[in-house]
Amino acid sequence: MVFEFLRNAGAFIVALGILVAVHEWGHYYVARLCGVHVKRFSIGFGKPLWRKQGSNGTEFVVAAIPLGGYVRMLDERVDDVPAELSSQAFNRQSVAKRMAIIAAGPGVNFIFAAIALYVMFLIGISTVKPVIGDIAPQSIAANAGLAAGDEIIQVGSRHTPDWEAVNFELISHVGDSSMAVTVKNANGVTQQRELLIDGWNFDSDSESPLRSVGITPFTPAATLNVAFVGEGSAAKSAGVQVGDTIVALNGETVADWQSLVAFVKDNPGEHVTLSVNRAGQTYDLSATIGRRDTPEGQDGYLGVSPYAEAWPEGYVFTHQYGVFEAMGKAVDKTWRLMTLSIEMIGKLVTGDVSVKNLSGPISIAQGAGSSAGYGLVYFLSFLALISVNLGIVNLLPLPMLDGGHLMYFTIEWLTGKPVSEEIQEWGFKIGAMLLFTIMSIAIFNDITRLS
Question: Is 164 exposed, middle or buried, given 0-12, 13-18 or 19+ CB atoms closer than 10 A?
Fold first, then answer.
């Protein structure tokens, strides 16, 4: 638990540090191009932990609170600016230059996401074909005629080469009345099915979009060969070892792993005899099924995991492309992440997506930790996703965000005069209140997920 916390916290700080540095560098770089003097470039807030004075007069700072950053530019509205430096003040720049400086932060977030995905596609990432393993009876998928063994090749108008793409496209249809899904069956016959999803929604804390419509992805069957034995578990106390094959339970032959799991789950605290085959010899081991609390009540557990059968040929493949093809794939995926983020914000506003799906820093930290644990390519994918979301959120027309500044500058451009200081001040107060409300909901959701 401590290791997991430290891993998540470390990955979160690294991920947020990278994304904040990228975002603020966008503001800084374009400000310098426009001739604006940058007084401070800070990653984090609060007390500086490290600082360095640049040759151009900018103070570079790493601060104690790693939850954001800022670029402070010379501005006559807040600084006493000598006459000889007034041309370098932000407020003296044209509307076009000020808009470019502000838009550069989110813009660089999108560019960074494309670069991260480009590197990911160059390295290659393993994935699985979206072949259906099972369909829940009377579910949305069952009513549409989807069947086990079907491969989902398209949702709506978009190609779905893997389960990640299927999930993205399912989510994009929340709030619609129907959704077209194109499948290819085991005989290679392609058919289009219509899923009736009027009123469909799902709780992301307890189920995936796939399972909410009744789809279980295909996975190789679990064998009865033990691949893992947990320390301090009931199986460990009984003497079960990695490599053992469980052949019987209380003298009755075990048909498959699922039947073993079902019995153990329904009998917490039960004394049982496990018969295992080890190097050609059968051993009878006495075990007491452990207990653990779940939201549904108390379940039994042994503390073992099985080896699985091999994936069928062609089911597992690698997204890996050449130098030029990877570029196109990265740009296409970045664009899809951007449009999907905008769609989800719209659905939050209309109520098609519940505010329970908002995530805060705790969920982001968990995502950063888990993706980092899987390796570099998965961490790059996570960075791209968060970078796109950071860019989109910053473009929202809230006065505390870049989008709010762009809104004021657009009004100034259209009317020929700046928005009054009084209106801007009220706007910042309202924006701060809205942001605080959104973050409070997100953090509350995080805490609820942990409980």
Answer: middle
Strands (E), 22-160: 38-53, 59-73, 125-128, 132-135, 151-155, 158-159
CB 126 within 8 A of CB 132: no
The pLDDT score that the predictor gives to residue 360 is 47
Q: DSSP labels for 152-167?
A: EEEETTEE--SHHHHH
User: Of these residues, 4, 24, 59, 207, which one is catalytic?
Assistant: 24
pLDDT, mean of each 10-residue run, the chain (451 residues): 63 83 95 94 91 90 87 88 87 93 95 95 91 93 93 92 89 88 91 90 73 91 91 89 92 90 89 91 91 77 90 89 94 92 79 58 52 73 89 86 90 88 79 71 56 52
- Check: CB of residue 194 under 8 Å from CB of residue 161: no
* Overall residue count recorded for the chain in this entry: 451
The per-type count for the chain, helices as H runs and strands as E runs, is: 12, 18
User: Cβ(236)–Cβ(230) under 8 Å?
Assistant: yes
Give the whole-angstrom CA distance, residue 305 versus residue 298: 20
Res 172: pLDDT:
86
Q: Is 194 a catalytic residue?
A: no
In this structure, what DSSP letter does residue 279 have? T
Q: How far is Cα 295 from Cα 290, in angstroms, rounded to an integer? A: 17
